[in-house]
Amino acid sequence: MEKAKKTKSIYYKFLGKTYIKTDSVVGAAFILPAVVLGAIFVIAPMVVSLSYAFTDANLLKLNEVGWAGLRQFKKAFTDRFMWNAFKNTMIFVVKVVPLQLLAALGLALILNTKIRGNTFFRWAFFCPVMLSLAVTSFLWMNLLNPEEGLINALLKVFHIPPQPFLESPKQAMNVIVVISAWQGAGYQMLIFLSGLKNIPPELYEAAGVDGAGSGTKFFRITLPSILPTFSFVLVTMLIGAFRLMTQPMIMTQGGPTDSTMTMSYYIYQQGIKYRDVGYSSAIALLYTLFMSTVALTLRKVTDQKD
């Protein structure tokens, strides 16, 4: 009887499930630092930003905050500069997501085969991911320099006139798209590669016996098998594309003629450069709601539970 009571005392129930007390205490101790840091540096700033969205808060006069109601949101909907930044962001998303997705999947398919130097190529393709966006941006700025850059020097060899690249309103965004896809594809490649490794080889062997070709195997076996991975990569890639800021900030400062001004960079400028914290918070709230809606809708569309 005493042993039964002792055994019962080490368990407890929560929301209909039974847990071991000692395991729960150890688990709580491990996640407590992350929870505290997340509350201080993520949740608290989000709550403060949400409250500032309804005020006329100025970064230099935060002790003189006045209630503004919906005025900041009305201003956002009539701000042509914000709409231009939104348009540029959508252009970037539409271009970079398919490009980066195809590049990552293609590299993963290549590395999933038994080729010589597989480990080296896997490291080489992932190497750009390990570089910070700031370092990558400065590196490409030097390579794309219209007068002294290596890219124009190579073009000259093939008798192609030098290109303005980042100094051209027509080329700047496309250049940032290519650089962003190059820099991020290695990370998604590893995720795709892990999904490909989990596909049973017996499926391909059976398909080969039935006379299926490479294309049939890809569309009938590979793609359906990695669809959950594909959905995860697509959503995370989309959210990352919506948050583009570092490359335009360093490489073009939003120019030339605001052709690379993005929503994240515009929000940053309004809050930090122009000190209008209330307005930047309002735009950030609207943009967050838009991104969340797109991500949740896409996740629902690509859900394969049925």
Write the layout of secondary structure elements.
Layout (H helix, E strand, L loop, with lengths): L1 H8 L1 E4 L2 E4 H32 L18 H7 L2 H32 L6 H13 L2 H11 L6 H8 L14 H26 L3 H9 L4 H12 L1 H16 L3 H7 L10 H11 L3 H25 L5
Antiparallel strand pairs: 1-2
Helix pairs in contact: 2-14, 3-14, 4-8, 4-11, 5-8, 6-12, 8-11, 11-14, 13-14
Question: What does this protein look like?
Answer:
The chain has two domains: 2-52, no CATH class; 71-301, MetI-like (MetI-like fold, Orthogonal Bundle). The longest helix is centred in the N-terminal third of the chain and has 32 residues, at 21-52. Helix content is 71%, strand content 3%. Strands 1-2 form a two-stranded antiparallel sheet. It is globular. The chain has helices at 2-9, 21-52, 71-77, 80-111, 118-130, 133-143, 150-157, 172-197, 201-209, 214-225, 227-242, 246-252, 263-273, 277-301; strands at residues 11-14, 17-20. By secondary structure, it is an all-alpha fold.
